[in-house]
């Protein structure tokens, strides 16, 4: 079953077609046979959430993330990716206020907290910083260049940002 889910997610990415995401999602939601590895299936929830987010299937994204996070996932790259996906979901749908932005940033920070201590996950710190920049872009004002405290979590040296024009 895991193989079929991966095939559908691959086709969804290749063809940019939400029909394949729906098929993968339906297989994930189906009662799991005894042969399926529970951890592998939970990781597939994150992959499905990422792909459905890319295709604008926000309900599937939200449900996959809920299934994953309710299962008490291990602290690994998939948990980081789930947090990044949750932050993207918030920012793609509803960032109209600073409070909405704070919710999205909170998920990016959670991902960074996990990823910063493991060198093999440093790419996730980079991804989180890009997602942060995309999220705050609409709040930036011309002539103001200040780094948010967000970047103090990104590395051992912290933020060097000040103001500049």
UniProtKB/TrEMBL annotation:
PANTHER family: CILIA- AND FLAGELLA-ASSOCIATED PROTEIN 46 (PTHR15977)
Source superkingdom: Eukaryota
One of the protein's GO biological processes: axoneme assembly
Protein's gene: LOC113077851
Protein name in the entry: Cilia- and flagella-associated protein 46-like
InterPro entries for this protein: CFAP46 (IPR039586), CFAP46_TPR (IPR057466)
């Amino acid at each position: 079953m895991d193989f079929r889910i991966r095939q559908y997610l691959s086709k969804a990415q290749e063809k940019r077609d939400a029909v394949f995401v729906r098929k993968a999602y339906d297989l994930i939601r189906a009662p799991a046979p005894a042969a399926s590895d529970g951890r592998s299936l939970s990781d597939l929830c994150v992959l499905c959430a990422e792909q459905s987010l890319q295709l604008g299937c926000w309900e599937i994204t939200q449900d996959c993330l809920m299934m994953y996070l309710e299962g008490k996932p291990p602290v690994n790259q998939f948990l980081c990716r789930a947090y990044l996906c949750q932050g993207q979901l918030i920012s793609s749908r509803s960032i109209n206020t600073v409070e909405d932005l704070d919710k999205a940033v909170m998920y990016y920070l959670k991902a960074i907290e996990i990823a910063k201590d493991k060198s093999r996950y440093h790419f996730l710190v980079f991804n989180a910083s890009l997602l942060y920049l995309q999220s705050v872009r609409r709040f930036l004002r011309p002539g103001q260049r200040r780094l948010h405290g967000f970047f103090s979590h990104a590395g051992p040296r912290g933020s060097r940002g000040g103001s500049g024009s």
